[in-house]
Amino acid sequence: MSLTRQDVEKIAHLARLSITAQEMPVYVNSLSSIVDFVDELSRADTEGVLPMAHPLDGQHQRLRADVVSESDNHEKYQHNAPAVTAGLYVVPRVIE
Amino acid sequence: MHNLFIGELADRLAKRQISSVELTQHFLGRIERLNPALNAMITLTAKQALADAAAADARLSAGERGPLLGIPLIHKDIFCTDGVRTSCGSRMLDNFVAPYDATVVARLKAAGTVMLGKSNMDEFAMGSSNETSYYGPVKNPWDTAKVPGGSSGGSAAATAARLTPFATGTDTGGSIRQPAALTGVTGLKPTYGRVSRYGMIAFASSLDQAGVFARSAGDAAAVLQVMAGFDPRDSTSVDVPVPDYSKALGQPLKGMKIGLLREFFEGLEPRNAALLEDALNIYTGLGAETLQVSLPHLPLSVPTYYVVAPAECSSNLSRFDGVRYGYRCENPKDLMDLYKRSRGEGFGAEVKRRIMTGTYVLSAGYFDAYYLKAQKARRLITDDFRAAFDKVDLVIGPTTPTPAFDIGAKMDDPVLMYLNDIYTIGANLAGLPGVSVPCGFVEGLPMGLQLIGPHFAEAKLLNAAHQYQQATDWHTHAPRGYT
């Protein structure tokens, strides 16, 4: 097993995912096999190779004029929110 | 009517031999009758479809003509559709009504197409079998004990079963080409940046590309014509002219150089190899020249992909926080609990697995060994393709190692499932266009051949597929019970 239960618990916390006690062994197992599989990459000779983040080289982020391009649709957008009051998203209390 | 190609349907609509309303009713009737056995659909939009068809009929009656005016379609449920639920196959978005149209949806709408509904898919497009959907697996119309492939399995199955003349899909690691092969339809993944990703729910942003399922390369060309083009709302959309794809279909193949990918043919299952041998003979008969080419770094493509794609997925899917839209858990005790349980309960097992894989490869101490390493391997693979395209116009190989497999057969072993994508992933890593076309049957199940071209070579690719379909009839076979 390349990953321990503690490793997976830490990853799940970083990813903000609750994983139940029953699910945990399945993830330890499958994530370990995935990590072992992608470890094949360590054998590749990549000396001097530039990392490639984007499939079309030489493309630049376009800029646009700083003008208003969208109208105010907040009511339509907030229609999908689990809890809204007075146009504000409602979450559990953060500051006591 | 459902066996006609898009050009034939458009011709009948233009001559007013049929109306768009009749056509729409016909396909809605087929969906109602045949879809329960396939589970290809998540949402039906019958009422809106009939209204849109009536509007298309009014445009036709007023003398307007267009290759897709009045033609029904199905959108993969990854494309945002204004006012219509857009679930992405996930419990997380089960209640999400998109507040705007994806550019792909808007363009096809403006062309006068009629949306019948939204198709089933692997959750957030993560899967190769359409078994990870919150709405249950899609069945393959050729054999309902088999998977249709994924992630765009619903669009593929619906097109194969003649529930629609065509459907949209997305392809991040093969999610159009693989299900197209396994269901016997034509599936096109365009060049990265050719079709706008605006309003297409993101999985892996440097790999995702929208494309089309149709029953012929000619039909796919007509659809791509409408989908393709620059979109200022997508920062990776490329501003290069869109050629006339349908016009390019008449080009003879004489003198075209087609490269046989050595790494794709090595160790190929003999019956799969025999079908490709037949296809190569067709191509040489059409005047093309075939020669061997090699992509020495291709064996790195699956591990590279399964670092890059989960890394981008973990970042993209962090937007689902249970606050602004999507699923929220019951009675969160604090904000952290809200985040963790909303995501833990809202996402399915495979999505959580990929988010965690991505989180791991991006985490401090592992970034260089995995993510940066994979980005370097990605360049090696891309450079291999570039070198191949110095020698040949297109490359050819199988789309999948095997025909459709049994539902449930690979669900317990993610790595085995990932290896399904071995022939398709390379094109995504390099951003290249690829097409899968039906090339015969193994054990009564359809198989696909894959053509991959240089960036923006869709016209050449579609023409090569079209010429093959002029010389063969594999693309006209319909599954039994769906003819």
Strand order of the largest sheet of chain B: 4-6-5-10-11-9-7-8
- The global form of chain B is globular
What name does the CATH topology of one domain in chain A carry?
Histone, subunit A
Number of separate strands of chain A: 2
Q: Classify the oligomer.
A: heterodimer
Count the beta strands of chain B.
Answer: 11
What percentage of the residues of chain B does DSSP assign to strands (E)?
A: 5-15%
- Structural class from helices and strands of chain A? mainly alpha
The CATH superfamily of chain B turns out to be: Amidase signature (AS) domain
List the helices and strands of chain A in order.
HHHEE
The fraction of residues assigned to DSSP E strands of chain A is under 5%
Q: What profile does the largest beta sheet of chain B have?
A: 8 strands, mixed
The count of helical stretches of chain A stands at 3
Query: What average pLDDT do the residues of chain A reach?
Result: 93
Helicity range of the residues of chain A? 25-40%
How many domains of chain B, as an integer?
1
Short description:
The complex is a heterodimer of chains A (96) and B (483). By secondary structure, chain A is mainly alpha-helical.
Plain-language structure description:
The complex is a heterodimer of chains A (96) and B (483). Helix content of chain A is 31%, strand content 4%. Chain A has 96 residues and is mainly alpha-helical. Chain A has a domain of 38 residues: Histone, subunit A (Orthogonal Bundle), CATH 1.10.20. A two-stranded antiparallel ribbon of chain A has the order 1-2. The mean pLDDT of chain A is 93. With 483 residues, chain B is α/β, with parallel strands linked by helices. Chain B has an 8-stranded mixed β-sheet, with helices on both faces. In chain B, strands 1-3-2 form a 3-stranded mixed β-sheet. In chain B, α2 packs antiparallel against α3, α5 runs parallel beside α6 and α10 crosses α12. The model of chain B has no long low-confidence stretch (mean pLDDT 97). The chains are: A mainly alpha (96), B alpha/beta (483). At the A-B interface, α1 and α2 of A face α10, α11, α12, α13 and α14 of B.
